[in-house]
């Protein structure tokens, strides 16, 4: 039997034993970060009760699918959610209406560098 994930608005509030996955922000980086399993990262965050960070390479996304679709396609995440459901826990994914999109520390450093300033000037010049 195939396990299917259904995403919809919750009919009741989460209980104390339920799992809440909350998307807090999106950061863009100039350096390549390690791209790991979303499911394993979330499982570790739940077990240690500490926040986790998931990395995804935008270049691998050939279409304009929403971020939630990208997250839900991770096979490890489906296994983690299935395991929690078998334990009687529900999994909630909380996405605020406005998710802040920020530049990562390495992006800020690049923008303030000599090469970054040159690129920004060229972009401004090309817009004219």
Short description:
The mean pLDDT is 81. With 128 residues, the protein is an alpha/beta fold.
Which features does this protein show?
two-stranded parallel sheet; 128 residues; alpha/beta; 39% helix; two-stranded parallel ribbon
Describe the structure.
There is one protein chain. The protein has 128 residues and is α/β, with parallel strands linked by helices. The chain has one domain. The protein is 39% helix and 11% strand. The strands form two sheets. The chain has a two-stranded parallel ribbon. Strands 2-4 form a two-stranded parallel ribbon. Helix 1 runs parallel beside helix 3. The longest helix is centred in the C-terminal third of the chain and has 14 residues.
Task: Describe the SSE topology.
Elements: E1 19-22, E2 26-28, H1 38-48, H2 67-72, H3 75-86, E3 91-94, E4 101-103, H4 105-111, H5 114-127
Helix pairs in contact: 1-3
Name the quaternary structure. single chain
Strand adjacency order, main sheet: 1-3
Order of helix and strand elements from N to C terminus:
EEHHHEEHH
Number of strands: 4
Distance between the termini: 59 Å
With helices defined by DSSP (H or I, 4 residues minimum), what is the helix count?
5
Overall domain count: 1
Summarize the biggest pleated sheet. 2 strands, parallel
Which class best fits the helix and strand makeup?
alpha/beta
What shape does the CA trace take?
elongated
Poorly predicted tracts of residues: none
Give the amount of beta strand, in percent.
Answer: 5-15%
What is the residue-averaged pLDDT? 81
The helix content is: 25-40%
